Amino acid sequence: MKTSYFRANVDEMTGYIPGEQPRPGTPVIKLNTNENPYPPSPRAMETLRNLDAEWLRRYPTPYADDFRQAISDVFAVPLDWIMAGNGSDEILNLAVRSCAEGDRRGVVYPTPTYVLYKTLAEIQPATVFEVPYLEENRLPIDALVEADGAVTFIASPNSPSGHVVSNEDLRQLASRLTGVLLIDEAYVDFADSTALELVHEFENVIISRTLSKGYSLAGLRLGFAIAQPQLLSGFFKVKDSYNIDAIACLVGAAAIRDQNYKNECAEKVKVSRATLASKLRRLGFQVTDSQTNFLFVVPPNANAAALYQGLKEQDILVRYFNHSGMENKLRITVGTEEQNQMLLNALIPML
Ligand SMILES: *Cc1c(COP(=O)(O)O)cnc(C)c1O
């Protein structure tokens, strides 16, 4: 038998499969990966256009100082409580790489949730403990504590369910866990609440956020973490020396400082989310309440796979998860009013 070039865990894993990404300019309505339908902040774009070549000639600052300073100013947290990541996916990756290993230092999360958590654990490798959410998206706190992970991930708001985990539940979990609790707030810009205050109360809590969703900058690859400096210190040792490029650092800082623009776009998405949800309900879809920029829906005739395919043939991309328990569900990113109407127009003849 031919020996493999790879470690056994790498041979055994499938790898994360991202949603389809057609080239920009391709005429598709892209409602499959939760990008913001509105353009990035004009101030961020101006910063990009005016970038001095000197910033590219030199190595970037190792800790993305301008970007972190912007976060420090806007969110009123000290600079040394902030870490920048190459997308918030890098923050999640760093948590696993810094803290998890094997059976005794496992990775724990309630399901269904972001599939990348599993992939990261498989790469490490660290044992994965998946604990199903209870009825009505209640957090299985006792089982999560029992699993005793080195890292426990909670996406809040969660994907694909769209629900927020209450701060009371997160507090209980944080106080009972011996390992790190990473609260993934990728969708916080579309939610009514945040768990940010918990980082002041608990030394084991880390909040991760991204510029990919609320700030319309998924292509820039930029995210950040907020936690007490002691907790971030391990992550700083593990990260790439220059994990944030100079362009991302400066453009990201400008975007963070333009909260008004981000909030305006998020408000528009929230209004469209409510309209789209009620129109889909009228068509017979089950639609769960969402605190994100997407809707998780069950079609009236339980033919999610056929709808996904039919939409795709009309150049409308939505997300269909071919996982057990999700066969009859679609995750639809909230687009502009016009895009949402085109989605509805395409759906109606197929129902
Ligand atoms: C989109 C997303 C992220 C990360 O996105 P980045 O582009 O890597 O910042 C993290 N967690 C969840 C749940 C997401 O949906």
Textual characterization of the structure:
This protein is α/β, with parallel strands linked by helices. It has 2 domains: 111 residues, Aspartate Aminotransferase, domain 1, CATH 3.90.1150; 216 residues, Aspartate Aminotransferase, domain 2 (3-Layer(aba) Sandwich). The protein is 39% helix and 17% strand. The protein is built from 14 helices and 12 strands. The chain has a 7-stranded mixed β-sheet with strand order 2-8-7-6-5-3-4, sandwiched between helices. Strands 1-11-12-10-9 form a 5-stranded mixed β-sheet, covered by helices on one side. Helix 9 links the parallel strand 6 and strand 7. Helix 4 runs parallel beside helix 11 and helix 5 runs parallel beside helix 6. It starts with 7 loop residues before the first helix and ends with a helix. The site of pyridoxal-5'-phosphate has 14 residues, from helix 5.
